[in-house]
Specification:
There is one protein chain. This protein is of the alpha+beta class and 352 residues long. It folds into two domains: 128 residues; 164 residues, Rieske [2Fe-2S] iron-sulphur domain (Rieske Iron-sulfur Protein, 3-layer Sandwich). Helix 3 packs parallel to helix 6 and helix 4 packs antiparallel against helix 6. It is elongated. The structure holds FE2/S2 (inorganic) cluster. The site of FE2/S2 (inorganic) cluster has 12 residues, from loops. Its main location: membrane.
Length: 352
């Protein structure tokens, strides 16, 4: 392009330094232009185009089949209590189905764009970004052109198979939600009761060693399980029982427990026990800040004030952590006075 035709080129070529000395500036990078267009096999051979179309919709239907397989595998290889092998088989076959479903959609879409969609090179001139009517019309035409050139509206077989594949690909994910609420268990009932009962000793997690009140020093926090939990083996629902009954034990000065906000009759000499299961969506509340007496749930940053009955002071949790009523037995060991008096865990379990 001649300098006179392009103001920018002209300006570059005639630029003068402040000394007034005219300098000829040569453009260091030449525009290489577009390489010669190479036609694809599918552009020149209608039979090849047909083969490509067949391949694409076969891949999309393969994706549908893989999604169905993932759902079937979820039922054919159920997770059985305490069986690690069943967990592995379930994850392997469901995962293979989901992976194949997504892979087939991806390969099909790439093949569609490379072999079937228009292969023309074109230059799109830049223009000002203004929201005028003409711009909107141009956008509309661009969509219409894309529809025409991709064949999305025309090639019903490819389009419908892609839509079917995309819809089917989300079904395995939805199926997995069923595992959150097993049919033979009422979740409200299951979370309303834990292993704690009158006289059950509080024990260290995971050793199962009972805790004396004298061992709980000021400012300390213990992760606690019911002593009887250690007697269960893993095939007897050990993890399920532990997940519900797990407790945090802390000692404050008795006068740091705000009267009226704590059930003082459920504490022992400043020692308090609260469920470790967050009342938001059930993560383990694990971080205790002994200066402020705050418990933090790391999942979504809910904070609970232990000095005020584990009331929520920040975050999405909707209610305080349930308190476990405790006292000591004749030998000085900490024991439960009863089970929790309300369901542990997320608040929505309480809602029928
Ligand atoms: S689970 Fe604890 S804040 Fe969300």
């Amino acid at each position: 392009m001649a300098h006179e035709d392009d103001p920018l080129e002209h300006e570059r070529a005639t630029w003068q330094p402040s000394s007034g000395l005219a300098v000829e500036v040569r453009d260091p990078v030449q525009n290489p232009g577009l390489p010669p267009h190479r036609h694809r096999v599918t552009d020149e051979d209608p039979a090849a185009m047909k083969r490509a179309v067949r391949t694409v919709y076969t891949l999309f239907y393969l994706s549908v089949a893989a999604s169905i397989w993932a759902i079937a595998a979820y039922m054919l290889f159920p997770i059985e209590d305490g069986s690690l092998l069943s967990v592995r088989q379930n994850n392997l076959f469901v995962g293979l189905g989901i992976a194949l479903a997504l892979l087939a959609i991806g390969i099909g879409a790439i093949h569609w764009s490379k072999a079937i969609m228009s292969d023309k090179e074109f230059i799109e001139p830049r223009h000002a970004t203004r929201g005028r009517d003409t711009t909107r019309m141009a956008a509309l035409h661009a969509f219409e052109d894309a529809n025409e050139e991709s064949g999305f509206g025309r090639r019903a077989m490819v389009r419908n198979s892609l839509i079917a594949a995309l819809v089917a690909s989300v079904l395995p994910g939805l199926t997995l939600f069923r595992g959150l609420a097993p049919q033979d268990v009422d979740p409200v009932e299951a979370l309303s009761h834990t292993m704690w009962k009158k006289g059950m000793r509080l024990a260290r997690d995971p050793e199962g060693v009972p805790i004396r009140a004298s061992e709980v020093t000021l400012g300390s926090a213990f992760h606690v399980i019911p002593e009887a939990l250690a007697d269960l083996d893993h095939s007897e629902g050990y993890l399920e029982e532990k997940a519900k009954a797990i407790v945090l034990l802390m000692r404050l000065l008795p006068d740091q427990l705000v009267p009226g906000e704590n059930k003082m009759e459920w504490t022992y000499d400043g020692i308090v026990a609260y469920s470790k299961v967050c009342t938001h969506v059930g993560c383990p509340v694990a971080l205790y800040e002994q200066q402020t007496h705050h418990l933090l749930c790391p999942c979504h940053q809910s904070q609970f004030d232990v000095s005020r009955g584990a009331a929520v002071i920040f975050g999405p949790a909707a209610r305080p952590l349930p308190q476990l009523p405790i006292t000591v037995d004749d030998e000085g060991y900490l024991v439960a006075q009863s089970d929790f008096t309300e369901p542990v865990g997320p608040s929505f379990w309480e809602r029928h």
